[in-house]
Specification:
The protein contains 3 helices and 6 strands. By secondary structure, the chain is α+β, with helices and mostly antiparallel strands. The longest helix is centred in the middle third of the chain and has 18 residues, at 52-69. Mean pLDDT is 84; it is low at 28-38.
Length: 151
């Protein structure tokens, strides 16, 4: 297994194209050290139908892992919930992200419903990371995701 050099997701070493972001992977193994700067990673917090507490623990673990892997942006998939009002995991994840932001542990976050070229915060993010212009959730106003700026 290896990490995609664009999105940071774990993929099979045999793959030439990342199934998450579609980027072509380098075939060179190098010396085995992580010399490339990973840009973004997608984390599905809903996977395995966790409790709110389990999802929050995974959120914290993934933020720490992203920092260690030098991932700059994490797309969190937390879902919107089946009630139509927003689920508990979504609400608690965003509270946790706000807490982490206030403590200086993340640079910021953009709720999926605000992840649009028309929003100032997204414009600033796109100017820093122009590669995000091909993000599959851009301009979709998806309330089930959040973009996290790790560092």
């Amino acid at each position: 297994m290896q990490l995609c050099h664009i999105c940071g997701n774990e993929i099979s070493s045999a793959l030439l194209r990342c199934p998450y972001c579609g980027s072509t992977q380098d075939s060179e193994e190098g010396d085995g050290t992580a010399t490339k700067l990973f840009l973004r990673k997608t984390v599905n917090l809903e996977q395995g139908l966790p409790t709110v507490e389990q999802a929050l623990q995974r959120l914290q673990q993934e933020i720490c892992a992203a920092r260690l892997e030098r991932v700059r942006l994490v797309t969190l998939i937390h879902g919107y919930g089946s009630s139509g009002k927003g689920g508990a995991i979504r609400k608690e994840c965003r509270k946790k992200l706000d807490y982490l932001w206030r403590r200086g542990e993340i640079k910021g976050f953009i709720p999926g419903e605000e992840f649009s070229r028309r929003q100032g915060s997204t414009k600033q993010l796109l100017s820093r990371f122009p590669q995000l212009s091909d993000h599959p959730h851009l301009n979709r106003h998806n309330k089930g995701i959040t973009i996290v700026v790790v560092f």
